[in-house]
Each structure stands twice: as structure tokens, then as C-alpha cells.
Amino acid sequence: MNSTLLVELFTEELPPKALQTLGNAFAELLSKTLRDEGHLADNSAVEAFASPRRLACRITNVAAVSPEKKIQERLLPVKIGLDANGQPTPPLQKKLDSLGLGAIAVDQLETISDGKQDVLHISRTQAGKALEDSLTKALDTATTKLPIPKVMSYQRPDGSTVHFVRPAHRLVCLHGDKVVPAQVLGLESDRITLGHRFLSQGVLNIASADSYEAQLETEGKVIASFGKRKAAIVKALAEQAAGDKVVQPDELIDEVCALVEWPVVYEAGFEREFLEVPQECLILTMQANQKYFAITDQNGKMKNRFLLVSNLLTPTPELITTGNERVLRARLADAKFFFDQDRKKTLESRLPGLANVVYHNKLGTQKDRNGRLVELAAALAPVCGADVEQAKRAALLCKADLLTDMVGEFPELQGNMGEHYARHDGEHPNVAQAIADHYSPRFAGDQLPRNPVGVATALADKLETMVGIYSIGLIPTGDKDPFALRRHALGVIRMVIEKNLKLDLIDALNKASKLFVAYPDFKHSVEGIGGFIQDRLRGYLKDQGYSTAEVESVLSQNPSQFADLPKRLEAVRAFSQLPESQALAAANKRITNILKKTEVGSAEVDTSLLQVDAEKALATQVKEVEPHATRAFEQGDYQQALLVLAPLKANVDAFFENVMVMDNNEALKNNRLALLKHMHGLMNRVADISQLAA
């Protein structure tokens, strides 16, 4: 009989940041094992539940007994399993006995060749498996393979030691309305679970798998579904905000959702004087320390009210809000104190203290690094369109806020606090913005620096980091990238392409490398870093929707300037749509292979040595096309530079059909190679179109 299956593991409070992952993995592992055991139908639906004190899974259309199935088992090679008279040998009889088939007749065995020898097989019907047996196996798999951040060891009442993410206390296993006998973590299954710790009567008797979610909600005051609980929180926050905006990053919503079983949103407030502190500090204080939600007006200006998500529904909410306001007030007072104290010293006055902050034991202090950033930012400023002196000033001050009390308390605010303090010190607005923006982009999709000074400073910071760290051997491996070199590389790529900077990457890396020559552990690795950045560039361009062939056509030429790559890729895409593109790509590939094998001196073609009509026609057409292609290329019209090559197809085909390139006459051979080399250069200025060959 097929019915809905429910499995719930009731535990002590689970780690909130891992709860959603644990819930999804628990359901996935359970359902996979049961599907492998044959209990699930094609249309069986799997639903995961996860709350602070439970992991659960509900699966529809689950069979109590899996279907019988025909299996074919390999026994032994014929030469080992049968004697000279065709009778079973002792090894075969032993194998059959182990399978419970001792009385099987030889004529019931099948002989199948595996390509090397004949092998005896037996076909038989395997009985279906009971759900209770499969479920215990599935539970063992699910609990041992969960992506647990840190495993706990605890003792059961019987003295046995159990290893799991948190102590588990109850196991519910229902198939329809029947309890499925199963065991895991020293627990025996039944239909009893617990509701909300304070809002329910405690013990709940689950009537059936289908009634589980509704019973928990109505009787137990628990919203078991992580997704539904999250949606309820978002809705309640919006209602309480009453037209204002709620600052609600996804990670905070997820963490709060993992802390409550029956979310209730309350509003509270704080004194207006705290709004004098930069709102980034206030918001971070609320989110990081207390899991509160800040409120802003529609223009993003913070208000002196906030929202909190409680696990308690009470007729006297003031008891909750007053206590939370008192706790937050102390936090905000600390932030205000740090802010006031920090402003008593200028950023510039803090610079000598950077000599006491080690950047890396092989690369000196933050003060040493500041010197490198100033020099590199000044070198990069012209290509970024930035004022050189402003870029130098921003690079000089950009790390000074590391020594402030506010950044010491909240490292996430480095850069942002530097901007506030720079404005207070009277620094130029471009410099102040650049101090905050030199860390940008901080993550995928983050905004780029707001002004050219910020771009120059951010490029200097990222290139200096990559060159220094990479060149002392700390190359990212696997998922380990402690200095975020991959993120820095992607930041450089985005700034160069999206800001359309005519930056020569190799030149910039060489300038950065020269700043480290005094360090004995530094090894010049510009080529390696360039390749590292190009690998990130490859992924970036594919993420923009370009195909592998299109990307490789432009990157195979190892460009040191990236700004025009999107234009080149669009040109390649347009060219690839032409009917002639495949033939020209294949011809280009053939030419590339010929030129690789043969040294060609000059690319100048001697027209007096052109003998065959096909080579004369091709040379003439190349000469006609070249000025149009060159003019388009020099004007940056890459599409036109490629499209004008299309008419070459017929003459290129005729050339390879009628002309012997490697002629015995050395002069003819070299002239034909020169023609191919000349045409090859013309065809591959925008991209290596041979990469488009199917």
C-alpha cells in the first residue's frame, strides 16, 4: 500500500546558520536511499521541514513494500565453476550456498561472455523490501552523511555514546497513520513529538503523516517549514514597518528564521541622539549583536525605531521590547563613544601607527604597504582619469582607519569609517569616497568605486595584494583562498571592462612587482599572475553569456588589455553567424598548423612568383580587403573588421584545392607561405577565428 511517509528527528537547538542546509540535506539523503530501495514512485514529492528543534521530511506515495525485481548475479567463470563433466565444482556450490540457492540445477545457470571469458550467471527474483528495514538504513545514512559543521558526542540514558550535531530526543516515523518501526541514534520511532517550548502544551500525538504540518501549527505553535516561516517573518516585518523600509539582508532573515518556531515581530525604539553616529555602524550593531532589523525612510535615511523577531506571543509585548531597547541602548552608546573618540584624531595622525601592524611577515607592515599603494595608485591614476595627487592622498590614508576604535570593534566597517573620518578631517570628497571604495567590489555583484580616484586606489590595492601574496607562494588551491586573490582578480577585471580602462595588465603587474624588489622572499611571477587573472576572466566572460569557443577565440591571443573584449566578442559572435564562418575558421586552423611547422621569414608577397590562378586571385583579393579591414580595426569597429573577410571564402577554398603550398621550388614555397602568413595576420587581429571551427 502506498501512503505518505513522515520522518521527524526532534533535537535540542540546532546551529542556526546551518539549519536550512541541514534540513534540506536530511530530506534529500532520506529520499535518495528510499528511492534507491524502490519505495518511491516517479511522482513521489519530497518536502523538507526544519525548525530550531527538529529536522523532518515528508514524502508522498511511498510503498510499504518495494516491488519485486529481477536480478542477474555473476557467479564464477565457467572454467572454475564447472568440471570436465559439466557439473558444479566445490567453489560454485559454495557460492550458490551463500546465496541460498544450493539446490539449483546446472541447466538453470546462464553462460555470458564478458569479452574475455565465459561466466556463469543466475537470474532470480528478489523479494520486495519492507519499509521498516529500508527506513532504518535511510536514517543511518541521513544522520551520518549530514553536512554537520561540528559533531557533538553525548550519552544516552542507557550509557551509550552518540555522535550527532545536537542531542536527539525523539523520532517520529509515520506511514499514513501507522507507526513504522525504525531506529537511529539510540531512538525508537513512535508518533510523539513536542510543540513550542512555551506556547504549546508540549507533547503532541501526530495522527498521520498528512496531518503533521497542520497539527504542529495549530496545536504546537510551530511553523515547521523553513520557507513558510521565513515568508511569515518577511510579511510581518513589512506590516510593522508601516510604509517605511526594513533593512533585511537575506542572511539575517535566514538566521532569525532558524532561531524561532513561532515568529512574532515587535517594534521598539532608541534615542534620536544615536542617529548622529553613521548609520552603517548602527545597522551593523543591530544586526551582528542583536539580530534586529533597522528601519529607514524611503530615501534610505535611518529612523530611531527598529524591529525584532521574537519566539514568544505575549499580551504584554512591552516586557520584551523594553528589555531589548535596554540592551541595544548599551550597544549604541558604545558605538557613539567609539565614534566620538575616533574623531579626536585625524586619519593622517594615525599613519605612524601602521608601522606596528604587520601586513605579512614576508612583506612588511601596513606602513610599508601604504608606501607601495601610494606609488602604484599614482602610476595608475592617468589611465583611470584620476587626479594623481588625489589618488596618492587616498592611497596614503586608505588603511588608517584600521587603527580606529570603531573598526577595531567592527572590522566589517573598514573603509566605510575611513570615509566618514576623512570627511570630518576636511579631505577632498573624491579622496574620502576613494577610501571607502578602495575595497570595492567586495563581493560578486557589488558596486564599483564611485569616482576615478576610487578606481585608481582600488586597482592599486588589488594588484599590490595579488602580486605580493602570489609571489611569496601563497597561491589559491581548491577552495582555500585566505587572501581573496580570486575576488581581487575579478574586481580588477570588472573595473577594467566596466569602466572601459585602457589598462595594460602586464605593464601594471610589472610596476607592482618593482615595489617588492627589496623583499628577499619575493619572486617575480608576473606571467603566473597574468595567467591566474586570465582564468578568472574566462569565467567572467562565460558568465556574461559568451560561449567557450567565442571566449577562447579572444583569450587564446593572451590580451593584456581587457576593455575592448566585449566588443571583440560581439564581433566574433556576429562573424560566426555568417554562412562563410565555418569554412574560414577551418581554413584559418589549417593555416595555423602549416605556419607552426614551418619558419616563414617575411610576410611580403612577391606578385611575380604567383603562378597558379587560385593564388593570384587570393593575393589580389587579400590586397583589396586589407585596407578596409585595417581601417575598421583601427577605428575599433571589430565587427566590420571581421565581416569584410567573408568574401575571401571562395578564393581560400580554391587556393587549398589547387595550390601546392609546400612546393619543391623553395622560392614558390616561401612566397605561398608569406601569402598565408599575411592572410593569417589579417584574419586574427580581432580574435583567433580558428577556435570557431567545429
UniProtKB/TrEMBL annotation:
<keyword id="KW-0648">Protein biosynthesis</keyword>
<dbReference type="InterPro" id="IPR008909">
    <property type="entry name" value="DALR_anticod-bd"/>
</dbReference>
<keyword id="KW-0963">Cytoplasm</keyword>
<dbReference type="GO" id="GO:0004820">
    <property type="term" value="F:glycine-tRNA ligase activity"/>
</dbReference>
<dbReference type="Pfam" id="PF02092">
    <property type="entry name" value="tRNA_synt_2f"/>
</dbReference>
<keyword id="KW-0030">Aminoacyl-tRNA synthetase</keyword>
<feature type="domain" description="DALR anticodon binding">
    <location>
        <begin position="586"/>
        <end position="681"/>
    </location>
</feature>
<keyword id="KW-0547">Nucleotide-binding</keyword>
<dbReference type="InterPro" id="IPR015944">
    <property type="entry name" value="Gly-tRNA-synth_bsu"/>
</dbReference>
<keyword id="KW-0436">Ligase</keyword>
<comment type="subunit">
    <text>Tetramer of two alpha and two beta subunits.</text>
</comment>
<dbReference type="Pfam" id="PF05746">
    <property type="entry name" value="DALR_1"/>
</dbReference>
<comment type="similarity">
    <text>Belongs to the class-II aminoacyl-tRNA synthetase family.</text>
</comment>
<protein>
    <recommendedName>
        <fullName>Glycine--tRNA ligase beta subunit</fullName>
        <ecNumber>6.1.1.14</ecNumber>
    </recommendedName>
</protein>
<dbReference type="InterPro" id="IPR006194">
    <property type="entry name" value="Gly-tRNA-synth_heterodimer"/>
</dbReference>
<keyword id="KW-0067">ATP-binding</keyword>
